[in-house]
Every structure is written in structure tokens, then in C-alpha cells.
Amino acid sequence: MRLTKGMFGHEFAPAQGALFGFRAGQMRSNDYVHNGGWYNKAGEKLGWGDLSEEDMVRLMQELEDGEFFIILPESASFWNFGRARTISVDSMEPGVEYVAQEAMMVFTKNRAYTHRRYSTTLEPVKSMRGLVTFNCIAQDEILAMLTGQTVETTPR
Q1: Do the domain assignments include residue 154?
Q2: Residue 132 sits in which domain range?
Q3: Phi-psi bin for 20: left (phi > 0), alpha (psi -120 to 50), beta?
Q4: Is the residue at 4 inside a domain?
Q5: Does a structural domain hold residue 115?
Q6: Which secondary structure element, helix H or strand E, spans residue 57, and what is its range?
Q7: How many domains does the chain have?
Q8: Residue 151 CA to its chain's centroid (Å)
Q9: What pLDDT is attached to residue 86?
Q10: Is 156 among the domain residues?
């Protein structure tokens, strides 16, 4: 398994030379995702930081079959585990159910998905500069993808 817990480094301790050229805490002046948390399909945190549209294209091109790169918003991947601690799970391993519930985006080989709560339509949507097309899916569909289960999709 290439996507392993902490592979990009931890808060304020980035790993160098990691997969996709990413490192924890990376900043992008043209970010599409700001301070997102990055997770694998087991619900383990890989790292965090900004991602540009070019980063997302690279993800889709370089992910291997069966790999999932899930992005959670900063609030769900960092602040929920901070001093306020609104949840009681390990921030490095919150689990597949938590990741599916909070997912903002999911990337697989040559595919991008966004949770329906982040879209005003159920139709595929393009990123700001049009480099990525996201398919809009529901939370139960995300969970089914991550666990290999089948789910009856909600009519579009």
C-alpha cells in the first residue's frame, strides 16, 4: 500500500520527497483547497496542506487502481481535534466512517468526486479553471466506494 498514515509528514514536520511531490503543510498561491486534510481509504491521515488544480490533475494521473485520496476541510481534519475537541477519535486515524462523512473531495485513478453538500447541482461540475471535472456523490456513495460495498445510488 503506497498511501500510508503520516507519509507526507505531520503538523509542522513535513516529509521530503514524498509521493506526488506533496509535503505536509504545503502552501499554494493558486490553491483550490486551503489547508485540507489528506486521508486514505482506511481513514488514516496522510498529511495536510493546500492543493492546486494542477495537484489534483497529478493525483488523478498518478494514483494507482484501488487507491483513494480523500480531502477533508480544515475544520474536519484539524480543528475538530483541537482544544474544542468536538469528536473523540484519533486525529491520525479517525476511521473510514468519519472520513466518508466529512469528505469534501475524493480522488481515484482518473476520477474526481465531490460531496453533494459542496455543489449546487447533481450534475458533474468543473473546477474554477476547468482542469478537473467532479462527479457529485452522496455520503453513502462515498462510504460504499471506500469499503468496497454496493449502494443503490440516489436518482439524479
Answers
A1: no
A2: 9-147
A3: left
A4: no
A5: yes
A6: helix 53-62
A7: 1
A8: 20
A9: 58
A10: no
